[in-house]
Amino acid sequence: MNIYATAIDDIKIIEPTVFSDERGYFFESYNKKEFNKLIGRDLDFVQDNHSKSVKNTLRGLHYQTKNVQAKLVRVLQGEIFDVAVDLRKESPSYGKWVSATLSCVNKRMLWIPEGFAHGFLVLSDNAEVLYKASNFYHPEAERSIIWSDPDLAIKWPIDGSPILSDKDSKGILFKKS
């Protein structure tokens, strides 16, 4: 397994060791013992979320105000531009964002600890995304920051506007999060 640092120390890109031969490939996508050693704490994921989206769909930037979630994100099919925004007011990287391109080809995963908003843009014709969450989803505590927030100035790799859910199109500004 290879671990890559990002511009925000707590967020890591994880690249599993893949064993390939004429039959295909095998890799361990999650091992609690190894993962907890990597992040330096004991974490239990309680929920897996799986989405399928078409090209130019943007989901996010989501976060929860209570029962905050850490996430481990990976792509089963296609390719996405994945983004995490630091919402931890005491953090030196507060208001900063990092991104990673995750795909079924590179098999990379993005580790996002609690305290971040998360979103992704589908780059391929369609994409299936699976992410583990450390806390249960609580719709009453969910919030969404607008994808085009001028203070965040995320450089989404899209010309024009993305496909958004009604909820995401009504996202709030970062300053109000």
Question: What do these coordinates show?
Answer:
The structure is a single chain. With 177 residues, the protein is mainly beta. Helices cover 7% and strands 41% of the residues. The protein has two helices and 13 strands, in the order ββββαβββββββββα. The strands form three sheets. Strands 1-2-10-7-12-5 form a six-stranded antiparallel β-sheet, with no helix packed on it. A five-stranded antiparallel β-sheet has the order 9-8-11-6-13, with no helix packed on it. The longest helix is centred in the first third of the chain and has 8 residues, at 32-39. It is globular.
Structural key phrases:
177 residues; six-stranded antiparallel β-sheet; mainly beta; 2 helices
Topology diagram in text:
Blueprint: E1 2-5, E2 12-15, E3 19-21, E4 24-26, H1 32-39, E5 47-54, E6 58-64, E7 71-77, E8 79-86, E9 97-103, E10 109-112, E11 116-122, E12 126-133, E13 142-144, H2 166-169
The string of secondary-structure elements, in order, is: EEEEHEEEEEEEEEH
Shape: globular
Average pLDDT number: 96
Helix content: under 10%
> What's the N-to-C terminus distance?
35 Å
* Secondary structural class: mainly beta
Gyration radius, in Å? 16 Å
Main sheet strand line-up: 1-2-10-7-12-5
Catalogue the unreliable spans. Answer: none
By DSSP, the count of extended strands is: 13
Hey, roughly how much beta strand do the residues contain?
35-45%
